[in-house]
Amino acid sequence: YAKEEGKNNFQFYSTDIKTLSLERLTLEANLRHAMEHDEFSLHYQAKLDLKKGSITGVEALLRWQNAELGSVAPNRFIPVAEETGMIVPIGKWVLRTACEQNMAWQRQGLPPICVAVNLSVRQFADENLLGDIAAVLAETGLAPHLLEIEITEGMVVHHPERAIKLLTAIKAMGVRLAIDDFGTGYSSLGQLKNFPIDTLKVDRSFIRDIATSADDKAITEAIIAMGKTLSLTVVAEGVETMEQEAFLREHACDEMQGYYFSKPIAADEFTALLKTHLQPG
Ligand code: C2E
Ligand code: MG
Ligand code: MG
Ligand code: MG
Which residue numbers delimit the EAL domain (predicted)? Predict the structure, then answer.
């Protein structure tokens, strides 16, 4: 009755600030052995071209299944992995696994798609980052343009000099670059033009109420227009409804990602999705 017990514990401590540190310590302790116990996996979520309706890419999203804790959401464990630095080896594993999986799809004769991997602030600060990316590409044989690295606005806003150097070097390898959750940080058009990025991902919070909120409509339209000005591919995140899709198509957003087309799914399910998607009609 571990579940029952966990619930009681939570209720008992819920008024106490200790809940936070206790949960944190439990996460941290379990996270330490997650890699060796093979508890991580990747799920894959399709990105769709809004005009053609074809799958253009896929985002790799980390999943953690622990015997004691069950399945733990990234928003809960990634901050802990960040603070402890564990995200660096974990992130390396994500990068390698996503590239290997993309090669596997190609070997099966599926049309080439680009796989996107999220990069954490900690990895961004790691001096081995460039070498690690180069090594993974060399060892897996994946064409660099079939890998995209997603970074957040925060990384480029807070460390602009380092960001330009690093992003330019990554870009020089032929790897694509995306800004994730765009609109939630504080980067400006003027700043963005200095970075060699390919893709802007409009944060889900702007898409959610796009059918009803005049503000969110205006913001999304502005981001799409800005993306066009800078010749970037604009991707809308968190598209869940037909109305949202219609709005984005009408306003010439390039791509969409969200539950409306597909949730993040296991690799073999994604393989099946790619295959059915190829069939005409
Ligand atoms: P993200 O990179 O912005 O990824 C998109 C998140 O939105 C994913 O949550 C995805 O499952 C969710 N999502 C996609 N479509 C929809 C939709 O239509 N509706 C709703 N409600 N949600 C949607 P997830 O997988 O829980 O990941 C959360 C965040 O954790 C990611 O946000 C990313 O910042 C981070 N993350 C995930 N995997 C990794 C990783 O391998 N490395 C690092 N550093 N961060 C990761
Ligand atoms: Mg992302
Ligand atoms: Mg995002
Ligand atoms: Mg996010």
Answer: 24-278
